[in-house]
Amino acid sequence: MEQKPVLDVAGLKTYFYLDDQMVAKAVDGVDFTVNPGETVAIVGESGSGKSVTSLSIMQLINKPGEVIDGTIKLEDENLLNKSAKQMTKIRGNDIAMIFQEPMTALNPVYTIGNQIIETIRKHKKFSKEIAREKAIELLKVVGFPRAEETMNDYPHQLSGGMRQRAMIAIAISCEPKLLIADEPSTALDVTIQAQILDLLAEMKEKFEMAILLITHDLGVVAEYADRVLVMYGGQIVEETTVEKIFEDTKHPYTIGLLDSLPSLEKEMTRLGAIKGTVPAAHSFPEGCRFSTRCPHVMERCYKKNPDLLDVEADHKARCYLYVEEAT
């Protein structure tokens, strides 16, 4: 029996109206699902649309941005039909998010304990005493050795890694169905990064959550993801399992990302690089959005943007190199 997705995003378009003439198509027709207990990673360079996708799901897009089309279903509920008040009940309870910089996400004037208790009591009918006990337990679960003392600490009193652990405690406090982690370890040193990502994997198992992991780090993807979505120019250009993304890469952009990684298996004098830069979201090329940087570009690539097509079982790519094979 096929699993019903926790999250089903279809035809999502999020545009930013910069002035009368200029529209930035930050997310432009994105489709994907996240199944129960699955970790799906969205990968791409800065400016590819990863974070805007996650903020669209959370309904946190502010003017001049706007979700103009598509559906975002959390189980059977289309989040785009929800009012601001309804979304306030859903955020933190059914769907939670960890941001890449906890210092901006945590409130500097409230203690860590107050912030966890407030989140719990906002969504659960718990007394202050029970909410406090749960908050202490959560801090222990995410690795605070002095959980009771930490309840009285303010964010500035904690290290970066401990602040991120506090954010995770808040995010999992109501046992959400879906956890979105937007570059959750970027601002941390390598050792702490690994600890935070291991903790997220542990929390996924403990609370049976699905995770949508936003990252630019393919090493993180290899270690923690089940399925991968590669984004470029506001669209998904490749989608497959984590094994296939490394063993049988299809899209030239993904190949370029992998070539830029250092390897212990082969001798390298210098790392590969993708020429040029990601085009601005208000000035994508007319055809394939990767055409200005692609080593395999053909005449038709300049004329029409290819569709995201099945090129193999469990493997999609948005590239004319595979159109004949897919039809």
Automatic annotation (TrEMBL):
<feature type="domain" description="ABC transporter">
    <location>
        <begin position="7"/>
        <end position="258"/>
    </location>
</feature>
<protein>
    <submittedName>
        <fullName>Peptide ABC transporter ATP-binding protein</fullName>
    </submittedName>
</protein>
<dbReference type="Pfam" id="PF00005">
    <property type="entry name" value="ABC_tran"/>
</dbReference>
<keyword id="KW-0067">ATP-binding</keyword>
<dbReference type="InterPro" id="IPR003593">
    <property type="entry name" value="AAA+_ATPase"/>
</dbReference>
<keyword id="KW-0472">Membrane</keyword>
<dbReference type="GO" id="GO:0005886">
    <property type="term" value="C:plasma membrane"/>
</dbReference>
<dbReference type="InterPro" id="IPR017871">
    <property type="entry name" value="ABC_transporter-like_CS"/>
</dbReference>
<comment type="similarity">
    <text>Belongs to the ABC transporter superfamily.</text>
</comment>
<dbReference type="GO" id="GO:0005524">
    <property type="term" value="F:ATP binding"/>
</dbReference>
<dbReference type="GO" id="GO:0016887">
    <property type="term" value="F:ATP hydrolysis activity"/>
</dbReference>
<dbReference type="InterPro" id="IPR003439">
    <property type="entry name" value="ABC_transporter-like_ATP-bd"/>
</dbReference>
<dbReference type="GO" id="GO:0015833">
    <property type="term" value="P:peptide transport"/>
</dbReference>
<dbReference type="InterPro" id="IPR027417">
    <property type="entry name" value="P-loop_NTPase"/>
</dbReference>
<dbReference type="InterPro" id="IPR013563">
    <property type="entry name" value="Oligopep_ABC_C"/>
</dbReference>
<keyword id="KW-1003">Cell membrane</keyword>
<keyword id="KW-0547">Nucleotide-binding</keyword>
<keyword id="KW-0813">Transport</keyword>
<dbReference type="InterPro" id="IPR050388">
    <property type="entry name" value="ABC_Ni/Peptide_Import"/>
</dbReference>
<dbReference type="Pfam" id="PF08352">
    <property type="entry name" value="oligo_HPY"/>
</dbReference>
